[in-house]
Amino acid sequence: MPRAKPFTQSIALAFLTQGIVMSAGLWLTPFLLHRLGQYQFGLWIVGQQVITYLTLLDFGVVALLPRETAYAAAVPQDVRKLLARTIRVVLLQTPVVAGIGLLACALIPHRFYHLRLPAAAAASVFALLFPARIFRALLEGLQDLAFTGWSALSGWLAGFIVTVALLLNGFGLLALAGGWFATQSLDAAICFLRVKTRFPRMLPSRAELLEPASLRNQLGDQLGRGLWISVSQVAQVLIYGTDAAIVGRLFGAAAVVPYNCTGKLISVLANQPQHIMRAAEPGLSEMRVRESRQKLTAVTSALTLAMLLVSGLVAVVTVAANPGFVAWWVGPGLYGGAMLTAMFALSMLLRHLNITAIYTLFAFGRERFLAKTSLLDGVLSTVLSITLAFWMHSVAGVVLGSILSTGCVLFFCNGRVLARELALPFGMLVKPFTGWCWRMVLAMGCARLLSAVLPHSAFWVVALTAILAASAYAALMYPVAMRSALKPYLEPYLQKLTRSLLNRQSNHVRLRPTN
């Protein structure tokens, strides 16, 4: 329960943030289409993926820090040593990161030459702020999750405002780099001040920072373990960050826009389930060294079901509301069809289930294995996506390639190793989720029927469709949640909600005037 409080606070804040991001995005996309045109907007989408590629220059060192901090959190001296070692390694990395980033920008294909200057500016920003990302990672390891959530939201709002201001003043694609600089710099500054004021005992002294002993060994150790994280990050970009590039290369930049608009609702809402595992990872890492395997199994089962329940909700709402949503948002001409929407939903469900296994195995220290399976997934996804898109002459082939590759890696690699880590047969690992599976099939069929009955593009019809789909899904899945390992975590909140409603009703009765 002590771990559950920051976890639930982080989840609630993530939902709030996502609501704000989505509301702003509903306005921003038509704004970008109007300011840039369809071709330039396609380049904007590709440019966002180029910025994502820059984050691969981390080499995994900072990505390891939250888990290692969670392992050492009980002893401040160990955290200081870990942080000092990480700072030394990251400072040595920074000039290399700057050089590689600028070289990569110079190698952008000529057909996307408009992106070279914005990408170079973004690479310079990334190198400048590269060491500052340590403080966010430290706070995540210390499970100060509510604060990091507020910090990320503040940075995003700053980036949004700067992006719009630059676009209004005619900076075009350079607004990408300006908005990213505002987001990263504000978040880094806020996290540094939080560490300085709230966790000063965790900051290393000058003597600890300048300690020269065994620097070569420390560098080799950090980079050696971080290399596996870096491989996984490369794979994640292949999995999540190449679809728009593939569509743009095979079908042209203009084709990226309907593809992106059709998948926008599900891609935005999909961040909610993913945050469940991101928020849980430091706690799982701490439990690995302090709790029994039986406790870990129960928590893993609860997290997996929570992930599936939220992911299923996103899939059902999207299948039901997406036709009307896209028509209302940007016009029916940019909707890719019901089949593409359903494929996006299936791909998301499989990815989320795989993410649950990945975060759990990472908390167990299996980064080397995850690097291999993630790279396999990334390469297989890219090859299948290109092959199937070319063979089918359709953007749907890109999504189908992702579905096939995720299913193979999940069921034949990550899922089976997770079962061994938890000392369970694979069948016992998946058995608690069979009730969710058949109900999910039923819910998806109902959502598709609902989208056909209520296809109108008026906003109130879209909202009504989403509410009806979500309500039906909640009614179907409530028994699943209350008969699972998730029940002990849900009951306190349900009881609190029930008491609040009863008290409100009682107060209403007492205040009602009598004759």
Kindly list the characteristics that best describe this protein.
single chain; 515 residues; mainly alpha; 20 helices; 83% helix; 0% strand; globular
Q: Nutshell version of this structure?
A:
This protein has two domains: 1-224, no CATH class; 242-491, no CATH class. Helices cover 83% and strands 0% of the residues.
Structural overview:
The chain folds into two domains: about 1-225, no CATH class; about 240-490, no CATH class. About 85% of the residues lie in helices and about 0% in strands. It contains 20 helices and no strands. The protein has helices at about 5-55, 60-70, 75-105, 115-130, 135-140, 145-170, 175-200, 205-210, 215-240, 245-250, 255-270, 270-290, 295-330, 340-365, 365-390, 395-420, 425-430, 435-455, 460-480, 485-510.
List the helices and strands and how they pair.
Blueprint: H1 4-54, H2 61-72, H3 76-106, H4 116-128, H5 134-141, H6 145-168, H7 174-198, H8 206-210, H9 215-240, H10 243-251, H11 253-269, H12 271-290, H13 293-329, H14 338-363, H15 367-392, H16 396-421, H17 426-430, H18 434-453, H19 459-482, H20 487-511
Question: What is the total domain count?
Answer: 2
Structural class given helices, strands, pairing? mainly alpha
Spans with pLDDT under 50 lasting ≥5 residues? none
DSSP, total strands: 0
Order of helices and strands: HHHHHHHHHHHHHHHHHHHH
Question: If you compute it from the alpha carbons, what radius of gyration comes out, rounded to the nearest whole angstrom?
Answer: 24 Å
Q: Which descriptor suits the 3D outline?
A: globular
Distance between the termini: 49 Å
Q: Report helical residue fraction.
A: over 70%
Strand content: under 5%
